[in-house]
Structures are given as structure tokens and as C-alpha cells.
Amino acid sequence: MRANKGLALIVVLWVITLLTIMASSFALTIQRETTITGNLKEKATAAALAEAGINYAILMLFTKDSEQRWKTNSSLYEIEFAGKRIRILIADEAGKINVNQASKEQLQQLFESLAVEETLADSLSDAILDWRDRNDLHRLNGAEKQQYEDAGLNYSPRNDLFKSSEEVQMVMGMTREIYRQLEGLISVYTTNKKVNPAAATREVLLTLADVDEAMVDEYLLQRADSERNGEPVAQPEWYKGGGKSSAYMIIAEAMIDGSITEKIMTVIKRGRAKNGLPFETLKWGENYPMPSLFLPVNNDRVIN
């Protein structure tokens, strides 16, 4: 009898322990789900604010008041909406590397600035040139139709200009990691052979030959000062590049509670569109692969 009571006590204690564990686990699950739900809500709010930032930037680009009109020299603005901070970058596409016009040397320098191994940088540069030329003769380290077939790929080079920057992903040897770094630095929306440094982002300027971070950051501060004072933005002494274009990239990033941010990017082109608007949307994307606009290195570049 006493043994049965002891066994019953053990069972009761075991059940209590099990229920305690289950209750703790349930409470932890609820806490985690609440946190996840809260984060999702904040990210959705940040995305909506970023989209509002895009629309506001377009409004300021096309305002008739020339003094209030926003600049396109990779200019960085900050506004506040619904009590939240939104940073907006506007850059003329001429400030990017034109993948349809870039020379072999420009492409190699671009890849090397991304720490791509020298041999791979050389083959990628040749493969890009082979993709856009109008013949089936491959360069020394390039690739044409036969090389794509030998690699088991079910497509071949266009043998024409790239229609979008995304098409570069199809070039033989291109990896997802390299393209993610490359995406924000290249364009197909200009006709310039050389980058316009007055419109280039910090990341693009760092791809140019014989420059370092100190030179680039000093120039960016000079550029921001010129814009604040309403003065023309001069090109740096160490690089003379191309002119402007009619296509602009806009990136808006909203911050929630000092930590959660969301970025939206669009490329628009000035000119009457079919819908009657004074611009055409060429590209739209979320979570754009670019360093945060809220990084401390950007603080002194904010114009307003």
C-alpha cells in the first residue's frame, strides 16, 4: 500500500513537472510569436514609409520651383514623416558604370574593386564583352555560344547590348555573390562611356582607378557643400568623366525605432509617359543591395 502511494506521488510530481515544462514552452512560443509579429508589423510600416519617400522624391524632382527642386548628384536628403526618419538618395544613372559601353580595362577595375580574383575578373570582363558584341568569336578568356553549350547552359549570349542590368547574371562565370555587389554599380540606361563622378555614389567612386576612401569621402563632402550653397557641383581633380542623363535612381530607406529599416529603389526616366506622367518607371525593387543610408559615414552628406 505504501509502495503504491509512493508510486502515485512520483507520477503526480512527474505530471506537474511535465505541465510546468509545457507551460514554460508555451509561454516562450507566445513570446517569440509576439516578437515576430511585432517585427513584421514594423518592417511593413518601414516599407510603406520608404515608398512614401520615393513618391515625395519624385514630387521634389519635378517641382517647378528651381530653388526647391532636388538634385541628382547622388544627393542625400532626410525627411520626417509620421514621426519617422526617411533618407532618400537620388542619383543620375550617368553616375554608374555603363555595362554596354565600358571597356575591358573599366570592367577589370570594377571587378578588382569588388575583390574578385584576378583570373576570374579577366574572364568575366571578356565574357561581358562577348555577350554584347555582334559575332561568335570569343575573346581569349571569354565565352560565346559554343562555350555556353560546353558548360551545359541552355542559352547563349545575346550578341547585342544588355537590355537590363539583371541580364548580367546570365554571363558565364557570374556568381550570385558577385552580382549582388555589382547590381548597384552598373546601368544600361545611359549612353556615356565614362562615369559622371558628380553623380556617382561612394561605392561607384571607389571602383575608379587610383582612388582611395579618403579621396572619395573628401570629394563627397565638397559635393554636398556645393549643393547646400546652391553652387554647381564640380568634378574632382583626380577624375574627369561623362555628362548627365535623363534617367535617375531613387533609393528611400525608412528607419523604425532606431534599428529596423527597409529600402525601396526605383529608376525613372524623364519624359512624357503613356499614362500622361512626366516620367516613366524603368525599374522597381525592394531590399536593394546597398549599404544603409543611415550609416554614420553618410551623416555629413545629408543636404537638409
Supply Rg: 26 Å
Number of helical regions: 7
| Biggest sheet architecture | 5 strands, antiparallel
Distance between the termini: 85 Å
The overall strand count is: 7
Oligomer: single chain
Side by side, the strands of the main sheet go 1-2-5-6-7
Descriptive report:
With 304 residues, the protein is α+β, with helices and mostly antiparallel strands. 39% of the residues lie in helices and 17% in strands. The protein has helices spanning 2-61, 104-113, 118-132, 145-150, 176-182, 202-205, 213-228; strands at 73-81, 84-92, 97-98, 186-187, 247-256, 260-270, 279-286. Strands 1-2-5-6-7 form a 5-stranded antiparallel sheet. A two-stranded parallel sheet has the order 3-4. Strand 5 (247-256) and strand 6 (260-270) form a beta hairpin.
Briefly, what is this?
With 304 residues, the protein is α+β, with helices and mostly antiparallel strands.
